[in-house]
Amino acid sequence: MQFAPLLIHLLSAIALATAVPVTLHNSAHGQSNVKGAAYFLTNEPSGNMIMVASLTSDGHVAFKDAVSAGGRGAHATGAPGPDPLMSQGALHTSAAGQFLVAVNAGSNTLSMFSIDSKDPTKLKQVGTPVSSEGEFPISVAINKKATQVCVLNAGLVNGVNCYTVDKSLGLIRQADTLRSLNLKSDPGPMASAAHQIAFNDVNDKLVVTAVGAPGFLAVWNVTPNGTLSENFSTITPPSGGMNPFSLTAVPGTNALVSADTALGMDLWDLSSLSAANVGGNQTASGRSASLAFSGQAANCWSSFSSKTGNFYFIDAGASIITEVNLDKTSMKPSVVKQYLQTSESATIDSDIASLGGKDFLYVLAPNATSIDVLSLDAPGNAKKVGSFNFAAMAKQMKVKINPDNLQGLTTFVPKA
Ligand SMILES: *[C@@H]1O[C@H](CO)[C@@H](O)[C@H](O)[C@H]1NC(C)=O
Ligand SMILES: *[C@@H]1O[C@H](CO)[C@@H](O)[C@H](O)[C@H]1NC(C)=O
Ligand SMILES: *[C@@H]1O[C@H](CO)[C@@H](O)[C@H](O)[C@H]1NC(C)=O
Ligand SMILES: *[C@@H]1O[C@H](CO)[C@@H](O)[C@H](O)[C@H]1NC(C)=O
């Protein structure tokens, strides 16, 4: 290994035992301490539900409600086990727009909900579910101004499509944004041809992590009016990279990071792209780099903390979280620390919420029917807050939970 010995932060049984009991009912008492909410999908083929939890200022999770996502979930063909959509971003919130968008992968639709800023556990559907204009929608992206939503279709009919946002009608199909990836999906209509859709930080590029040998980034230019370039540029991974999965924009730069299931992570420096070769084949150059993680099995998810300035990568196979720093000037990535989670809990989607001046990392652990919470106290100092189990609440509400079908995790914190 090329990096210094890593400190593995072992979680004690004591930390797990500190998890607060599941809250079964909304009550006036305790609401005042609700500082935000977390949401994930049951993604059941018989009916997709959005599981809703409140977040308190100390990072704790209390499961409150389950709301129909307005369609069916799905599980990728030939991919048993957790991570059914093989994606990051199956649902997303917009802080600026105070809404949530979720995919119904089995219905080829997406749904929009407004979020009550006084009680973000209250969701209200806006309009009706809209067609994703393709098959097996698995990931959504929302621009910073909350005026545009784009979806990634990863099935046999794969590609991207975008919508404008209407506060009363919901998502409105946007002309000149339906673009194909032209990927042959094998072995079936619900095999994942791609993993995530995201904007770069300045929102002038729409980026997809596509599956291939090697996998690649598909990058469309986004014009000021929101239309997409006719063709996408194909960016092959930096040396060592092979299977980019997630996408997290690096704030203040024209770069994104991806978890890479082949080794750890990739950094994509889009400022190095040739403007003269839009729609062509390009290589990741400039400050692009890849980095191997110790113990890597299946690094697929990533989040950024503005408080620590670091990225957190989630490995489902090893149940390890790896904290990575990018050097301020060279952008060279390095591992800060690794945090071992409960073995076989299959840690997947993650998000970071800022509550009471502190960042908390929320990680969906489907095999443990839990959300794991880490308090990001300082760089290299993430502390386990607890594992919050939702099995009892789901049973009480008669919501079907299959750990293999759960997907997506997103949080929302109302503006102060
Ligand atoms: C959007 O902008 C592009 C590029 O500037 C232009 O070609 C296109 O006609 C515009 N479309 C609309 C609907 O305004
Ligand atoms: C997009 O790609 C097609 C097929 O390669 C090509 O004919 C077309 O000119 C390209 N469009 C642009 C705007 O480069
Ligand atoms: C990019 O490279 C691939 C594989 O070599 C090739 O099939 C494709 O036609 C190339 N695309 C362009 C626009 O040159
Ligand atoms: C999930 O749990 C099952 C047993 O219930 C186990 O076989 C499997 O390896 C676990 N998955 C992961 C990714 O840890």
Automatic annotation (TrEMBL):
> Signal peptide: which range, if any?
1-19
Family annotation (SUPFAM superfamilies) = 3-carboxy-cis,cis-mucoante lactonizing enzyme
Q: What is this protein called?
A: 3-carboxymuconate cyclase
Matching Gene3D superfamilies, A to Z?
YVTN repeat-like/Quinoprotein amine dehydrogenase
Q: Which InterPro entries match?
A: Lactonase_7-beta_prop, WD40/YVTN_repeat-like_dom_sf
- Entry superkingdom: Eukaryota
From which organism does this entry originate? Cristinia sonorae
Q: Which UniProt keywords apply?
A: Signal
